[in-house]
Write a structure and sequence with these properties.
It is a single chain. This protein is mostly helical. Helix 6 crosses helix 7. It starts with 7 loop residues before the first helix and ends with a helix.
Length: 210
């Protein structure tokens, strides 16, 4: 049991879900900005964007739920975080999603800076989303062929939402940013865990190439 009386499994699922659904905020906000084609924050309507992207959101959430074995309570975290409800998109949030790579220029809201933050942020948050999803699926011991195919659909939907890189690009970023650290000899991953991550990578590569 955890300190608040919940089973360890429930606590772990919540942490894993927050790792998955945290980057979803960046994917959605960046997608809404990219969809304007102007990269002017005054033109962004997150509500209108989400209204037109229901199919992608449904595919993403269904794939995460199945591959990561999240129950209804755990899945509700996606809504509790507020990313899937209409809200304002700010330059400060884009700076956060892009890891602060641009610094804080005087014209933070200029279209050129906003577009650059969206490009960097999409790469970063999609890569984090993929790693968190694979980690949750491996933790749930979801069979790799099924889980990876479901996560391929998740990644395809997320890339479409973001208006950013292709799934094959995100897969390559994930390998060098995260997978190599899981597979290195000194990592905390067990032999079984390493084998599972390799299996997921194999199926994702067969799906997207690269």
């Amino acid at each position: 049991m955890t300190g608040d009386g919940r089973p360890v499994e429930e606590f772990t699922a919540e942490l894993l879900a927050r790792e998955v659904f945290g980057p979803l905020g960046g994917v959605v906000e960046i997608g809404a900005v990219n969809a304007t084609g102007t990269w002017r924050l005054a033109d962004v309507s997150l509500g209108a964007f989400l209204d037109g992207r229901g199919a992608e959101v449904d595919v993403l959430l269904a794939g995460v739920r199945s591959a990561c074995a999240f129950d209804s309570t755990t899945m509700s975290i996606a809504w509790d975080l507020g990313w899937l409800r209409p809200h304002d998109v700010t330059a400060a949030s884009l700076l956060l999603w892009s890891g602060g790579l641009t610094g804080v220029p005087a014209e933070l809201e200029s279209p050129a800076v906003v577009r650059h933050m969206c490009q960097v942020g999409a790469d970063l948050q999609l890569t984090r989303l993929l790693h968190a999803s694979v980690t949750a699926a491996v933790t749930a011991r979801t069979e790799a062929k099924r889980g990876a195919r479901e996560l391929a659909a998740v990644l395809t939907a997320a890339c479409a939402l973001s208006g950013g890189p292709r799934p094959s690009d995100v897969l390559r970023l994930w390998r060098v940013a995260h997978l190599v650290h899981v597979l290195r000899p000194g990592s905390d991953a067990s032999d079984a865990g390493r084998s599972a991550f390799r299996a997921y990578e194999h199926v994702l590569t067969a799906t997207f190439g690269g």
